[in-house]
Amino acid sequence: xxxxxxxxxxxxxxxxxxxxxxxxxxxxxxxxxxxxxxxxxxxxxxxxxxxxxxxxxxxxxxxxxxxxxxxxxxxxxxxxxxxxxxxxxxxxxxxxxxxxxxxxxxxxxxxxxxxxxxxxxxxxxxxxxxxx
Length: 132
What we know:
Layout: E1 2-5, H1 7-14, H2 20-26, E2 31-35, H3 38-51, H4 57-68, E3 73-75, H5 79-89, H6 93-105, E4 109-110, H7 114-122, E5 127-128
Parallel strand pairs: 1-2, 1-4, 2-3, 4-5
């Protein structure tokens, strides 16, 4: 089985957030896939955390190193389809890339982002999420 895994989930694992154990357990044996922009979005999110003083530079570097060791298949992004989806659903293009990739692969999306789960449901896409 494979799943598209978004930035929020990768960051939760790299930053040892509460959902980490569930994510690791749930993704055992799954081929993790993501749009090719994933490493850049991880870097962008970590730099935003540094700017907001949520992480130090060394913590951000450690989180990126942790992410770099994770196995993920990076796939080409359909920018045109993502632009259409982002315009029709009032999304950032970065979020639309994950949804378009999920739709293209026909597999579930793993995200911790409520808005992404909501739009995925509207699009008829399956999601996997931690139990509350």
